[in-house]
Structure formats: C-alpha cells, structure tokens
Amino acid sequence: MANDSTASLDPSSSSMNCGNGNFSYSKNSTLQRVGSMKANTIIEEVIADRLIIEKFSTSSNTVRIADLGCSVGPNTYFAMQHIIGAIEKKCESKGLSPSQFPEFQVFFNDQTTNDFNTLFTCLPPEKKYFVAGVPGSFHGQLFPSSSMNIVYSSFSFHWLSQVPKEVQMKDSPSWNKGRIFYASASDEVVQAYAAQFAKDFDSILSARGKEIISGGIMFTFMLALQDGCHPSKHILSFFLDAAGSILMDMAHEGLITAAQVDSFNMPLYLGTPKEITGLIERNGWFSIERLKFLDHKPGVDEPIEPSKHTAHIRAVIQDFIGAHFGAEIIDELFDRLHTNIAAHRDLHLSLGKAGVLLFVALRRK
Ligand SMILES: C[S@@+](CC[C@H](N)C(=O)[O-])C[C@H]1O[C@@H](n2cnc3c(N)ncnc32)[C@H](O)[C@@H]1O
Keywords on this record (predicted)? Predict the structure, then answer.
C-alpha cells in the first residue's frame, strides 16, 4: 500500500531483502564481501599486535565477538570465521595448544526486522562458536558494560538512525524537494545530514565504549568519501540520484505523486576520513589503530554487469522504497535503473576516485 503522507521514514522498520530469493541480500552481497575481504590481512595484523589474549584467558576464557548490522549470511559467517582464525593464530604464536584456546561466542546483531530465521538456518555446520541473536539498533547499548572483546561491523555504520527531520519539512531551508539523497542537494541539506551522522556516530562510539573491555578492538567498514571530494561524485550518490530522478519521472507520468518523492529520503551518509577521525577523537573512548581506504572500487578495477550492480542496490534499498511508495512500483523502478546504469557504464571509472570503502580499526582505551 503506497504511503502518501510526509511522515518521516523509520529506518528500523526496513531492512535488506530477506530470504534466499533472486533479489535477496544473501544472493546479492558479493560486492560487499569482496570489499571487506580486502582488509583480512590488516585485521590479522591488528589482532596479532594489539589484542591482549591474557585479558580473556584470566576471566571465563571466552572471547565475545559481535557483528553489528550483520544482515543475512553469508558475509557475516566469513567475517566471524576469519576473526576467530586470527585469534587462534595469535594464541598459537603465544605457545598455547588448541586445548588451551578460548571458547568463542558470536552475537549477531541487526534491526528487529532483519531476517534472523534465514541467518540462523544457514549457519555453517562446521562453525566453531556459540551463537546468539541480538535484535535492536546499534545506536544504543546492546550488551552489558565491559562484556565484549571484539566488535565488527561492515557496511552498516553509514546508516543513520533517522532522516534528519528538517529535510522533510516544507517550510525549512533544508527541505530536500524532488530528491531522495543529500549528495546533489543544497548546502543546507548536506549540513543537516552531516549533523545527523555526527550525532549517530557519536552514539555508536559511546555505546561500544561502554560494552567493549579496555584493550578490546572494533573493526568497521563504511562507505565513505575522500576528503575534499563532493558527495555527488561518490558511486552510491550516482545510484541514489539516478533512482531519485527516475522516481520524479514516474511522478510526472502519474505513477506516484511528487509529494511522495519530496517526503522520501534515504537515511545514509558518506563521512570523510577527516570527519570520522574528528568524531572519534572528540568522543574519546577509542584510539585509532588503522584508518584507510581499501583498494575496492567495484566497476572500476573490473567490469561489473549492470544487472549485477542493479541487483546489489535493489537488495539494499527495495524495502525502503516499497515501504514508502508501495510494492507495485518496484519492478518498474529497478528496470529503469538498470537501463540508466547500463547507459552510464563509463561513468563508474571516474566515480571510484571519490573513495568507496573506508576501513577503521579502533582500540578501546
Ligand atoms: C548493507 S547491510 C550490511 C550487511 C553485512 N554486514 C555485510 O557486510 O554484508 C547493512 C545492515 O545494517 C543494518 N542496520 C542499519 N542500521 C542499523 C541499526 N541502527 N542497528 C542495527 N542494524 C542496522 C541493516 O538492517 C542491514 O542489515
């Protein structure tokens, strides 16, 4: 059922496409997996150099790891197995035998609307860890104080807790009329998004600061923008601006209303290294161990079929679009987006320069 109101989208009520179908996130998230695997070596280095294994062996000998915004597998299974492997390698290097290795408990977190059934049904049978599901927003505290050793999060912290209210208010200078994203909008809209990200990222850091033990580690991967680049030059902005102008075309054709487009905005933000570093330093709970763009530019290093790119973006945003505009426009919108992406293949080459994936490793002070 289409939503004609101007009510703000609630990000907690939408998630990645569930199940195992053709348009599901589990079948359309290989680009994210390839991206996060580019940091495998750095993750091993940080665990080898900075994780203090004596800290967990003196308590219950259990290592508690959380994946925040895990969605549905398989990316999260690979990531958790890799972290556990890196810790076991470190234990080995300290002379521990396998019988002295710690036990592992993995907490899979996502919004309550996430498809936890598929996530748990598809868990790898050979997994070497105990499993728990933790529904709820990572913008608040999810675990007891000082209970976690390692927190991991990939492709999730660029999601905002809400669309900034002023971009949806008709009488505000920040009203984002006729667009669904801030990247090509006025400075007022960009500022409203930046302020929301600053608030949200600070909440994320403070909540993790309470949950992670001193010396514990947090790994995150975020879609981000190179310092000094205009946000409209980012590949995510290309997709969302294209989707926004297709929606406006559909409004002109009477398939939806312009008011529906004016009242819809994606709750995503692309921080820059400078912005993110400043927020981490101001927050104060963590020291920065690594902060760097990974060499991951989908469509730039190797050609990607427009249908694959379209399916990946569909798996991520379909639920949000459907909740606001109604499910009946989805196929038409993504058919048109596919045509648009296919017509602009060369553009991807220049878009990679604006940065794609920022990797950050933090250590709890
Ligand atoms: C693009 S998916 C990334 C999934 C997985 N980490 C990966 O790398 O493939 C982003 C995930 O973050 C989740 N997410 C967004 N905001 C969240 C929040 N406030 N709390 C918990 N999960 C959130 C979404 O529901 C979604 O499953």
Answer: Magnesium, Metal-binding, Methyltransferase, Transferase
Q: Say how many Å lie between the CA of residue 69 and the centre of ligand 1.
A: 3
CB burial class (10 A; 0-12, 13-18, 19+) of residue 57?
middle
Relative to the CA of 79, which ligand 1 atom is closest?
8
Q: For residue 131, how far is its CA from the centre of ligand 1 (angstroms)?
A: 18
34 in helix, strand or coil? Answer: helix
> 217 CB under 6 A from ligand 1?
no
CA angle 228, 229, 235 (to 5 degrees): 155
Query: What order of strands is seen across the sheet that includes strand 357-364?
Result: 130-135, 103-110, 62-68, 148-154, 212-223, 357-364, 286-293
Instruction: Say if ligand 1 is within 6 A of residue 15 CB.
Output: yes
Q: For the chain, how far is it from start to end, CA to CA, in angstroms? A: 49
Q: Is 155 in the pocket of ligand 1 (CB under 6 A)?
A: yes
Structure confidence by residue, pLDDT tens digits, 69-100: 999 878 999 999 999 999 999 999 999 999 99
Reference 143, options 206, 211, 220; nearest CA is 211
Q: Is 26 in the pocket of ligand 1 (CB under 6 A)?
A: no
For residue 221, give the H/E element and its range: strand 212-223
pLDDT single digits (tens) 164-183: 999 999 999 999 999 999 99
Q: How far are the Cα atoms of 7, 23, 159, 273 from residue 176, in angstroms, in the given order?
A: 14, 29, 18, 25
What domains can you pick out in the chain, each with its CATH number? 11-364 (3.40.50.150)
Tell me the CA–centroid distance for residue 138 and ligand 1, in Å. Answer: 9
Q: Which of 24, 80, 156 to mutate to test the pocket of ligand 1 (most atoms within 8 A of CB)?
A: 156
The pLDDT-based confidence of 308 (bands split at 50, 70, 90) is confident
